[in-house]
Amino acid sequence: MARPVHANAEATRTRILAEASRLFAEHDQGGASFRDIAAAAGVSIGTVHHYFGGKDALHSACIDAMYEDLGSLQTALWPALIQNSAHEIIRVAIHKTFRFARGHRQSLILLMREVIRAGELNEARREGFHRPFLDTASTMLSQQTGATAERCRLTLQSGIHLVVRYALSSDRDLLMIAGFPEDQSDNPDMMNAALESIESHMLRLLTHELGVEEPSHV
Description:
By secondary structure, this protein is mostly helical. Helices cover 81% and strands 0% of the residues. It is globular and about 60 Å long.
Protein backbone atom coordinates (compact mmCIF):
# COMPACT_ATOMS: atom_id res chain seq x y z
CA MET A 1 0.00 0.00 0.00
CA ALA A 2 1.39 3.41 -0.99
CA ARG A 3 2.18 5.85 1.79
CA PRO A 4 -0.10 8.91 2.00
CA VAL A 5 1.27 12.02 0.34
CA HIS A 6 1.16 13.97 3.61
CA ALA A 7 3.23 11.25 5.33
CA ASN A 8 5.93 11.56 2.67
CA ALA A 9 5.78 15.32 2.94
CA GLU A 10 6.18 15.25 6.71
CA ALA A 11 9.09 12.80 6.46
CA THR A 12 10.79 15.05 3.92
CA ARG A 13 10.25 18.12 6.06
CA THR A 14 11.61 16.35 9.13
CA ARG A 15 14.68 15.16 7.22
CA ILE A 16 15.40 18.67 5.95
CA LEU A 17 15.08 20.08 9.46
CA ALA A 18 17.45 17.46 10.88
CA GLU A 19 20.14 18.11 8.28
CA ALA A 20 19.69 21.88 8.45
CA SER A 21 20.07 21.78 12.25
CA ARG A 22 23.25 19.75 11.92
CA LEU A 23 24.79 22.00 9.28
CA PHE A 24 23.73 25.25 10.97
CA ALA A 25 25.22 23.97 14.23
CA GLU A 26 28.49 23.01 12.52
CA HIS A 27 28.88 26.05 10.25
CA ASP A 28 26.50 28.72 11.60
CA GLN A 29 23.73 30.13 9.46
CA GLY A 30 26.04 31.93 7.06
CA GLY A 31 28.25 28.90 6.48
CA ALA A 32 25.54 26.44 5.49
CA SER A 33 24.02 26.96 2.05
CA PHE A 34 20.68 25.74 0.77
CA ARG A 35 22.67 23.62 -1.68
CA ASP A 36 24.51 21.90 1.19
CA ILE A 37 21.29 21.36 3.14
CA ALA A 38 19.43 20.00 0.11
CA ALA A 39 22.26 17.61 -0.75
CA ALA A 40 22.47 16.34 2.84
CA ALA A 41 18.70 15.78 2.96
CA GLY A 42 18.65 14.13 -0.46
CA VAL A 43 16.23 16.65 -1.99
CA SER A 44 16.38 19.48 -4.49
CA ILE A 45 17.06 23.10 -3.55
CA GLY A 46 13.57 23.87 -4.80
CA THR A 47 12.11 21.42 -2.30
CA VAL A 48 13.85 23.18 0.59
CA HIS A 49 12.48 26.52 -0.65
CA HIS A 50 9.03 24.98 -1.04
CA TYR A 51 8.88 23.85 2.59
CA PHE A 52 10.67 26.71 4.30
CA GLY A 53 11.06 29.70 2.00
CA GLY A 54 14.30 31.50 2.90
CA LYS A 55 17.22 30.56 5.09
CA ASP A 56 16.08 32.70 8.03
CA ALA A 57 12.76 30.87 8.09
CA LEU A 58 14.51 27.50 7.93
CA HIS A 59 16.87 28.46 10.75
CA SER A 60 13.93 29.55 12.89
CA ALA A 61 12.03 26.36 12.05
CA CYS A 62 14.95 24.28 13.33
CA ILE A 63 14.68 25.97 16.74
CA ASP A 64 10.88 25.83 16.69
CA ALA A 65 11.06 22.05 16.15
CA MET A 66 13.03 21.73 19.40
CA TYR A 67 10.41 23.80 21.24
CA GLU A 68 7.65 21.57 19.87
CA ASP A 69 9.45 18.53 21.28
CA LEU A 70 10.05 20.37 24.56
CA GLY A 71 6.37 21.25 24.76
CA SER A 72 5.46 17.58 24.32
CA LEU A 73 7.94 16.63 27.05
CA GLN A 74 6.49 19.26 29.38
CA THR A 75 2.93 18.08 28.76
CA ALA A 76 3.94 14.50 29.53
CA LEU A 77 5.80 15.54 32.68
CA TRP A 78 3.19 17.70 34.41
CA PRO A 79 0.94 14.89 35.77
CA ALA A 80 3.89 12.96 37.22
CA LEU A 81 5.42 16.10 38.74
CA ILE A 82 2.22 17.23 40.42
CA GLN A 83 1.80 13.87 42.17
CA ASN A 84 5.31 13.72 43.67
CA SER A 85 7.25 15.32 46.52
CA ALA A 86 9.29 18.47 45.91
CA HIS A 87 12.55 16.50 45.91
CA GLU A 88 11.20 14.00 43.39
CA ILE A 89 9.78 16.76 41.21
CA ILE A 90 13.17 18.43 40.96
CA ARG A 91 14.99 15.13 40.43
CA VAL A 92 12.71 13.98 37.62
CA ALA A 93 12.69 17.43 35.97
CA ILE A 94 16.50 17.60 35.96
CA HIS A 95 16.86 14.08 34.59
CA LYS A 96 14.27 14.46 31.83
CA THR A 97 15.30 17.94 30.69
CA PHE A 98 19.03 17.17 30.79
CA ARG A 99 18.61 14.05 28.68
CA PHE A 100 16.30 15.98 26.35
CA ALA A 101 18.86 18.77 26.00
CA ARG A 102 21.64 16.27 25.28
CA GLY A 103 19.49 14.86 22.49
CA HIS A 104 18.86 18.34 21.03
CA ARG A 105 22.37 19.80 21.23
CA GLN A 106 22.36 21.04 17.65
CA SER A 107 19.16 23.02 18.14
CA LEU A 108 20.48 24.35 21.46
CA ILE A 109 23.59 25.64 19.71
CA LEU A 110 21.38 27.53 17.25
CA LEU A 111 19.28 28.96 20.07
CA MET A 112 22.29 30.08 22.11
CA ARG A 113 23.87 31.76 19.08
CA GLU A 114 20.62 33.62 18.53
CA VAL A 115 20.56 34.73 22.18
CA ILE A 116 24.21 35.85 22.02
CA ARG A 117 23.61 37.86 18.86
CA ALA A 118 20.39 39.52 20.09
CA GLY A 119 21.23 39.67 23.79
CA GLU A 120 17.86 38.12 24.63
CA LEU A 121 15.44 35.37 23.74
CA ASN A 122 13.25 35.67 20.69
CA GLU A 123 10.15 37.51 21.94
CA ALA A 124 7.64 35.00 20.58
CA ARG A 125 9.44 32.10 22.27
CA ARG A 126 9.91 34.04 25.49
CA GLU A 127 6.25 34.98 25.75
CA GLY A 128 4.89 31.76 24.28
CA PHE A 129 6.99 29.30 26.24
CA HIS A 130 9.53 30.60 28.77
CA ARG A 131 7.35 33.05 30.68
CA PRO A 132 4.34 30.68 30.99
CA PHE A 133 6.65 27.87 32.10
CA LEU A 134 8.33 29.98 34.78
CA ASP A 135 4.97 31.34 35.97
CA THR A 136 3.42 27.88 36.33
CA ALA A 137 6.47 25.96 37.57
CA SER A 138 7.51 28.57 40.14
CA THR A 139 3.99 28.67 41.59
CA MET A 140 3.86 24.89 41.80
CA LEU A 141 7.31 24.66 43.44
CA SER A 142 6.42 27.41 45.88
CA GLN A 143 3.38 25.45 47.00
CA GLN A 144 5.47 22.29 47.36
CA THR A 145 8.48 23.80 49.15
CA GLY A 146 7.19 26.84 51.03
CA ALA A 147 9.82 29.02 49.34
CA THR A 148 8.60 32.24 47.73
CA ALA A 149 7.55 32.10 44.10
CA GLU A 150 10.27 34.66 43.30
CA ARG A 151 12.95 32.44 44.83
CA CYS A 152 11.61 29.40 43.02
CA ARG A 153 11.54 31.32 39.74
CA LEU A 154 15.20 32.34 39.96
CA THR A 155 16.21 28.85 41.07
CA LEU A 156 14.38 27.31 38.14
CA GLN A 157 16.06 29.68 35.71
CA SER A 158 19.46 28.92 37.23
CA GLY A 159 18.69 25.24 36.82
CA ILE A 160 17.84 25.79 33.16
CA HIS A 161 21.16 27.56 32.61
CA LEU A 162 23.03 24.69 34.26
CA VAL A 163 21.22 22.07 32.19
CA VAL A 164 21.88 23.93 28.94
CA ARG A 165 25.57 24.53 29.67
CA TYR A 166 26.25 20.94 30.66
CA ALA A 167 24.20 19.66 27.72
CA LEU A 168 26.29 21.65 25.26
CA SER A 169 29.54 20.11 26.54
CA SER A 170 31.22 17.36 24.55
CA ASP A 171 31.30 13.83 25.91
CA ARG A 172 35.01 14.21 26.70
CA ASP A 173 34.41 17.44 28.60
CA LEU A 174 31.56 15.91 30.60
CA LEU A 175 33.77 12.98 31.57
CA MET A 176 36.50 15.38 32.64
CA ILE A 177 34.07 17.58 34.60
CA ALA A 178 32.64 14.56 36.42
CA GLY A 179 36.10 13.14 37.15
CA PHE A 180 35.97 10.16 34.77
CA PRO A 181 38.65 9.07 32.25
CA GLU A 182 38.27 11.23 29.15
CA ASP A 183 39.17 8.37 26.80
CA GLN A 184 35.97 6.53 27.78
CA SER A 185 33.58 8.62 25.68
CA ASP A 186 32.73 5.54 23.60
CA ASN A 187 31.81 3.59 26.74
CA PRO A 188 28.01 3.91 27.24
CA ASP A 189 28.15 2.80 30.87
CA MET A 190 30.89 5.32 31.70
CA MET A 191 29.06 8.12 29.91
CA ASN A 192 25.80 7.33 31.70
CA ALA A 193 27.63 7.32 35.04
CA ALA A 194 29.06 10.76 34.26
CA LEU A 195 25.64 12.09 33.28
CA GLU A 196 24.11 10.70 36.47
CA SER A 197 26.89 12.31 38.53
CA ILE A 198 26.20 15.70 36.96
CA GLU A 199 22.44 15.29 37.46
CA SER A 200 23.00 14.46 41.14
CA HIS A 201 25.16 17.56 41.51
CA MET A 202 22.49 19.80 39.97
CA LEU A 203 19.88 18.18 42.18
CA ARG A 204 21.90 18.94 45.33
CA LEU A 205 22.39 22.55 44.27
CA LEU A 206 18.74 23.25 43.49
CA THR A 207 17.23 21.42 46.45
CA HIS A 208 19.67 23.15 48.81
CA GLU A 209 18.72 26.54 47.38
CA LEU A 210 15.02 25.80 47.96
CA GLY A 211 15.51 24.20 51.37
CA VAL A 212 14.23 20.83 50.19
CA GLU A 213 15.50 17.86 52.17
CA GLU A 214 16.28 14.51 50.60
CA PRO A 215 13.63 11.98 51.64
CA SER A 216 14.76 9.43 54.19
CA HIS A 217 14.87 5.81 53.12
CA VAL A 218 13.87 3.13 55.58
